[in-house]
User: Fold this.
Amino acid sequence: MKPGLSEAALHRPNPSSNEQIGLRELLAMSFFLLGLKGTDTTPEFWITFGGNAAWMSALAGFAYVLPFLWLTARLLSAAGDRGIWALAEDVLGGGGVRLVFGLWLILFLLATVLNVRAYALLLEVMFFSKTPGVFLYGLFLIVAGYVAAKGIETVGRLASLLLPYALLGYVALFVGIFDVLDYREIYPLLGTGEKAFTGPLTHLALYVDLLYLALVADRYVGGARTYWRGVVLGGGLGALSIAALLFVYIAAFGYPAVNGLVYPFQQLTRLAHFGWYINHVEAIFLAIWAIAAVVHFAIYLYFDLWLLQVLLGAGAFQRLTIPLIGLLFVAGLYPYRSFTSQYAYRDAKLILLTAVVFPSLILIGVLYYRKARRGSGRGRRRV
Amino acid sequence: MFFLPRQTLTAGEVLAVWRKNPLVTHRDELKRRTEAKKKTQPQTPIPRRLAPAIRRLEATFHFQANDDFRRRELVYGRRAAALFYFRGIADEDQIERAIIRPISLIKDGGRTHDPLRDQRLTALDIVVLETMEAVENALVDGHPVLLIDRLRRAYAFNLDDYPVRNIDKPTNENVLKGPQEGFTERLETNIALLRRYVRSPDLIVRRREIGQKNRTGIVVAYIQSLANPHLVADIESRLDAIEALEYDWVKSVEQLIEERPYSLLPSMLTTERPDRAMAHLMEGHVVILQDNLPYAFIAPATYWNVFHASEDHYQRLPYAWFIRSIRTIAFFLTLLTPGLYIAATNYHVEMIPLDLLMSISGSREVVPFPAVLEVFLMELSFELIREASVRIPSQIGPTIGIVGALILGQAAVQAGLVSPILVIVVAITGLASFTQPDLSLNLALRIGRFAFLVASALLGFLGLSLLLAVTLAYAVSFKSFGVGYYAPWAPYTPSSQDVFLRRPAPEETTLPQALLLRTKTRLDASGFFALFGRLSRRRAEKRTQAEGAGRSGRVGR
Assistant:
């Protein structure tokens, strides 16, 4: 054996405990943030926009978000990988940054409540009709909260460990339903026409989760560059999986019949079979989906906690977990009336998120570059 | 705990202290106390006259009451001397040959020599002692001690002869192919075994003793050119903390230096195989040996370390892959089979093929208990049998088989207490659990399966998956001496990818960098490149020759 490292190299950050994550973790987190949306009630939005071309709508939506991701990555790079908060503070000042990110937090919390509640409702309707939805809602919050409280290191590593199995699950599902697909259903190819491509513009918030990840860019090995590669590759993989699922939903259930299905993924898993003997395997897909959902909401809760901690100036991150979960649980007890109202709530939330997050990002970008032009900005680096 | 610093702690901090080992969290404070104590602790110098020294030793060792404490009065040159030792733990033949006979044969006019320079004293190892405490320690360690009148020093001869067990086959880590010897209870033998496997001048063996009245020998071994010095320092500082408390009896050093005593996951690998200890030393781990314990503790230990067996590397690649695959399947069977059975039969009956479902329902028809209670009772019975089989005297060992198979299996089914299918489920779970090579991991899985049983009884597959997510999150956040439990997977770090499967032996060249080793590869880098450089040169020469031949051929044609 020949000593290959210098003494200085021994002092490099320990990858196990430096509380940083790399491209693999970020890619997996992006995938779980976006990819899972194809398996809940979100496909209804894309199907409404695009009809038969819903799968194209999903991809178009991702394409529309790419410039914002690019802008975010540029800003992160300009901020010297300190995170978007630090850069926003430079251009908006202490009060401005609190106002903008306070709004972000409120909307993130709203999204968390509505989405977790929607998942609990899904479980109640499809699998646990005798179990109170509130119990499932609370359980999901506790489990996801536990994972989130462990920090981004744990969330990222858990996501990276589970990503291959999630992808394997998708492949298994596609193999399992291969013989029930009728590809003619996806025609007319352009579906509802131009609406298939303009519709997602008002609901860019369907992809807003990828911007959450910019909040903690200082935790990424490689900073802005890793962020850009992670969200593009992971988000792209997620968008592709959504598109593939939408394609399969339409091919399996037909259009417009698919529009009447509230939970197409779960219905699809009921159709999956492998030969004559292995059938009715939706429980196995439920297990995979539930783990993926835990990761998905753990990321949500992590960013909720992170924003709350920064806004309150709280010391320990974990101390906020129990109060936040309690708050979200109480907020999620709103009376449930119908699927239509649930859909309307989520629609309003998406429009609000789109109207707040994306313009505020543009505002930060414009202010930063104006400041930079005046010569007081920081040196910009290429992403 | 008395050694916790007195300060006001918040509820969260109290919880954190409860969850972590205070010996580890407060080690710096403990080390400071040890150093302060050492400064103030009085040491008794050896009296100039022999008589008071003898009186003190006789009083300390209860000379009148202790039949095996021996004193032999001698004359060394012109001076009176006394030799003390314990019969049975010191080699009396050697004492006579190497000490008493040479001293009694001195015929040089009564001149007293320095025993260290006395050529006639043939004992190999003579240690000079300056204090009475050191003399007492040497005596209980089995070393005969020579006290000489008007000398403020004593001499201990390394002639201990403690009864020890011979090197034997490992009892818990059997292999079909590979070395067949295990550690013993004697520290020196274990060090010798390590030295035999690691023939390198870089192997550092550092010995220390813990406790005042009853000292326990601890050895820390590592490869100097490989192990991260911060890791070694970390382990040493944890041992310093134990030393500060002067434990009279260290039962298992592992429990005193691990960070999370309540965790189901082991943070150190325990092995009774010197070859396994050597393999980890050569990957930059630190090995800790303890007196009177035929095991080595290896730190840090990742999931993969505890999951792998020694045999994996002695078997050829395809066989090793096969064995590991079986073990991986067994891992999940142990943890999940009872839970899966409950989830499938209680919540997701539609996934069971109809014929099988009818068979299960038929067999459960006469059983009066709900399935979950049935599983719980059978699993508990299996654990009872397993625990009894460890404690039962070997002469009546076969009784366990009769009790387990006939009474609990056949009779319970016939009495309608359990269904036959459940006996199969429990048998598969039990059988699978025996495949895990590490006892700690085995126990963790056995305990964990009860949690999965409860989760699946509550929410079927959803409960199983939620608990699995929590377990995985805990496991990836768990660290053993600062190294992630799932490294080199999560976090990803360069290694030979010896995880679920392994690479062919010649390709296992990268050392696991999760440990931040001093060295990156097992091979001498220059040798590696020289070899491949030569190969490529040879290839290039051949190509040139071939091209030349072709060209000349064409020219010839």
